Amino acid sequence: MWKAVGSIGLAERVDKAFNLVRYLVEQMRKREGFHLLWEPEFLNVCFWFIPPSMRGKEGDADYQDRLANVAPVIKERMIKRGTMMVGYQPLGDKVNFFRMIVLSTLVSKEDMDFFLDEIERLGNDL
């Protein structure tokens, strides 16, 4: 890869990926329902999507159980519709969350917007 694109080409790819991660996080912060687990590390953006029916109910006894089911249901829907694919996982005491890794040089800001729109579309009725 280094021989193919050179040092400048690799630097441009890395810069683009970091810029897209910053853009994605900025857009998430503007939208209700997206909750970052922590500030992104490198190119990983870990987040929950909180459906409207669960917002403001963090104190409910079944909240964590319900939240754990959100990512798997949205993932199943995106696969069935063939619109996109993103991973999810639990970690320690954190229930299932999405883990978006921004790496491809073909991804654009428009793709990031589509990603957020699609998560909302697929999960707003949960």
Provide a descriptive summary of the structure in words.
Keywords: Decarboxylase, Lyase. One of its GO terms (cellular component) is cytoplasm. One of its GO terms (biological process) is taurine biosynthetic process. Belongs to the group II decarboxylase family. The protein has 126 residues and is of the alpha+beta class. The protein is built from 3 helices and 4 strands; from the N terminus they run αββαββα. The protein has helices at 2-30, 63-81, 109-123; strands spanning 34-36, 44-49, 87-91, 94-101. A 4-stranded antiparallel beta sheet has the order 1-2-4-3. A hairpin with a 7-residue loop joins β1 and β2. The protein starts with a helix and ends with a helix. 20% of the residues are buried.
Computed CA radius of gyration, to the nearest angstrom? 16 Å
Low-confidence stretches: none
Helix % is 40-55%
Structure classification: alpha+beta
- Strand numbers in spatial order across the main sheet: 1-2-4-3
How is the biggest beta sheet arranged? 4 strands, antiparallel
- The overall pLDDT average reads 93
Specify the number of helices: 3
Subunit structure: Homodimer.
GO molecular function, one term: sulfinoalanine decarboxylase activity
GO biological process, one term: taurine biosynthetic process
Keywords: Decarboxylase, Lyase
